[in-house]
Amino acid sequence: KKAGVINFSIDLISGLPNQTMASWEQSVKRAVALDPAHVSTYDLMVEDKTFFSKWGLIPGEPPLPSTQETAEMYKTGAKTLKDHGYNHYELSNYAKPGYECHHNLVYWHNEPFAAFGMGAASFLRGKRVTRPRSLNEYLAFVDKLTLAAGHDETDLTEDEKKEKIDKAWTEALELYADSTEGMMEELTDAVMLGLRLKDGLSLSVVSRRFGAENTRKIVRGAEPAVSAGLAVIERDAHTDDPIRLRLTDPEGFLVSSDVITSIFAELNQ
Length: 269
What we know:
Blueprint: E1 9-14, H1 21-33, E2 38-43, H2 51-54, H3 67-83, E3 87-90, E4 93-95, H4 102-108, E5 121-124, E6 127-130, H5 135-148, H6 158-176, E7 177-180, H7 183-194, E8 201-202, H8 203-210, H9 212-227, E9 231-235, E10 242-247, H10 251-254, H11 256-267
Parallel strand pairs: 1-2
Antiparallel strand pairs: 2-4, 3-4, 5-6, 6-7, 8-10, 9-10
Helix pairs in contact: 1-3, 5-6, 7-11, 8-9, 9-11
């Protein structure tokens, strides 16, 4: 900030070995004191083949905090940050007004995006695409794409250039696609990503894109959470049609995986 940078973010991790509620509260307060525009809070995940896993650490067991303790850390972090003017706009993310991460919002809204470089993952034309991970493969990929797009040809019209580039990209997407999203895959992605957001999932959009029956299934899958006060269904004031599903903050966010699993079970019937 002394250098004039005001738009910066701080990441915090809870659930660390030997971490206590007191030390977590101190971390959050120190972050707030630095007055960042954006704060992300993540709960430690012990993944296979990581050092935490090799050290034999088991989630919820010492020296890691218990599941109840990490839940309280999440709640405490959320309250402290919101009390200091941060908008809890996504499951793990908080921002001052106007400083939400537009880059990540593209992912959470399940919109297309292009990424560049070795191993970079893109979502284009309904396809999940990962570029080659090794240098030699990647350089060959770039050379092939450059040649197919006609960048070395100087006698092409603008329309011919655009046509060749489009064809080159189409071939590249077919060659390097990890998967092509069908309707159900796109719908489950939309549910999973949308419920990470404070604003939740637009059921109106779901009805338009995936049909009213799938919207009814989502509502049925969310009913246990709604009854428990962990989710809210907003309805049209005139038609009473469900128009939005969102999780409560922070209790609903804490059980987001359970709510999503219940919805997926309905969608798969």
